[in-house]
Amino acid sequence: MNLSFKELGLSENTLKALEKKGFKEPTEIQEKTIPILLNGDVDVVGQAQTGTGKTAAFGLPLIEKIDENSKDVQALILTPTRELAIQVSEEIDSLKGEKKLKILPVYGGQPIEPQIRQLKRGVHIVVGTPGRILDHIRRGSLNLKNISYLVLDEADEMLNMGFIDDVEEILRHTNKNKRVLLFSATLPRTILNLAKRYMEEYRLVSVKKETLTTNLVEQIYYEVSNSKKFEALCRVIDVEDDFYGLVFCKTRADVNEVANKLIEKGYEADALHGDIAQKQRERILNRFKKKRINILVATDVAARGIDINNLTHVINYSLPQNPESYVHRIGRTGRAGKKGTAISFVTPNEYRKLKYIKKIAKVNIRKEKLPEIDDVINAKKSKILNNIVEIIKSEDYQEYVEISQELINEFGAERALAALLKYVFKDKLVIIGD
User: Fold this and answer.
1) What b/e sequence results for 323-357 when a residue is b if at least 16 CB atoms lie within 10 Å of its CB, and e otherwise?
2) CA pair distance 420, 404, nearest whole angstrom
3) What are residue 186's phi and psi, to 5 degrees?
4) What is the C-alpha separation between 207 and 200, in angstroms, rounded?
5) With left for phi above 0 and alpha for psi between -120 and 50, is residue 98 left, alpha or beta?
6) Do the Cβ atoms of 290 and 299 come closer than 8 Å?
7) CA 195 from chain center: how many Å?
8) d(CA 249, CA 300)
9) How far is residue 399's CA from residue 292's CA, in Å, rounded to a whole number?
10) What sign for the dihedral angle of Cα 42, 43, 49, 54?
11) pLDDT tens digits, the chain, 434 residues: what are they?
12) How many Å apart are CA 100 and CA 375, to the nearest integer?
């Protein structure tokens, strides 16, 4: 259909907010969901993964429908992770325009008292993780009797992480007249049974299968033994002009080991896993979003909710446990019309798992040969030359002219320049395994 945001029935205030954010036209999930939520009174089950625009699909109708003059909590959005709770609340806040809506992210790992004070002052939309939401319900600091909307975001991940019992307890504390909106990348029987129990009538909205894994992602794999994975990772990063990506590992220990090795070799990298304190996690994510680091090594759980549109790469340092996780991982690149690359390191005894992922996820993952050492050296030389050429063109070097002339006079141009390159770039031309 390719409707515009205006044709979906959104207000002028919201249209201005969308224009300010640079949103040109609705995604498929937005086009299908927004009219149902604006015009009807049925519940919605939406099949859509991270990166399809699902936050705006439910967030925009909430902005339109919620009464800013009331102090009651009118919408509750449940997310599986703290990071996703923060990102969803920030996204909705950025879309509210001139409307005076108060949106509060609520999650563990933070003192509960400031959250209680904010809830007492009045909040329209609460976005939170099941555990902390239950804490507030039991303390009496969060009353859900007057909510009009309950959103379950990434319901399959809440199921995988063991939160479904908490979700059902939260549902029992809400009024019967609310609308329930459930979004999930996959719809296993457990999720559909949950929908049947708590939704009187619902519309199923599904993004076409092929857009779930997106044709903008080039998917390749390298056959690599466990002992050679780190060398392979360095080669993959080094041959790219502007690598900006997520590296997925199976365990927290693997994440720490890989991140520490990268940092030791001079890469701008950091680690993200469940043992990291919340404030530190937020600092790491902020640095990654601002590209102060360009490599983030993470576990699946820690990476939930990372929503960045311009990642160039997703690296499966360890293959995921199932096809759904593979789809979740690679869906973090190739967004917003930009191409991305998903690379998997596969050991010889993992071919059966790879074949299963390809079959169930219906994806084409082609085998490639690792970049050669000569390719890596040439790429590094090219980067060094480009950096130097940029400085020469900018003429931002005048304070070093005198010392450079002294070095040339004493040692000759070739030796002086080579020594300076070694001093500045250190061991960047040294290759692992060379």
Assistant:
1) bbbbbbbbbbbbbeeeebbbbbbbbeebeebbeeb
2) 9
3) -125, 160
4) 23
5) alpha
6) no
7) 26
8) 8
9) 27
10) positive
11) 578 899 999 999 999 998 887 777 888 899 999 999 999 889 999 998 666 788 999 999 999 999 999 989 999 999 998 878 888 898 899 899 999 999 999 999 889 999 999 999 999 999 999 999 999 999 999 999 999 999 999 898 898 888 989 999 999 999 888 999 999 988 888 899 989 898 988 999 988 654 454 568 999 999 999 999 999 999 999 998 889 999 999 888 999 999 999 999 989 999 998 788 888 988 999 999 999 999 999 988 778 667 787 899 999 999 987 777 788 889 888 876 778 999 999 999 899 889 988 887 788 999 999 988 887 777 677 777 777 778 778 877 778 788 888 888 888 888 877 787 777 666 655 554 44
12) 55
318, 185, 294: which is closest to 246 by C-alpha? 294
Measured distance CA(226)–CA(345) in Å, rounded: 9
Q: Which of the 8 DSSP states describes residue 291?
A: T
- Strand 295-298 with 245-248, pairing: parallel
* Residue-by-residue DSSP string for 42-76: -EEEEE--TTSSHHHHHHHHHHHHS-TT--S--EE
Angle of helix 189-198 versus helix 164-172 axis, rounded to 10: 10
Asked whether the beta carbons of 152 and 75 are under 8 A apart, the reply is no
Distance CA 314, CA 343 (A): 6
Q: Tokens 């933070």 sit at which residue?
A: 110
- Please name every residue paired with 77 in a beta bridge, in sequence order, or none if there are none: 127, 151
**CA torsion through residues 196, 66, 106, 14, sign:** positive
Please state the three-class secondary structure of 388-407 as a single string. Answer: HHHHHHHCCCHHHHHHHHHH
Who's near 263: CB < 8 A, 6+ residues apart?
A: 269, 270
Burial 161-198 (b: 16+ CB within 10 A, else e): bebbebbeebbebbeeebbbbbbbbbbeeebeebbeeb
Provide the CA 16 distance to its chain's centre, in angstroms.
Answer: 26
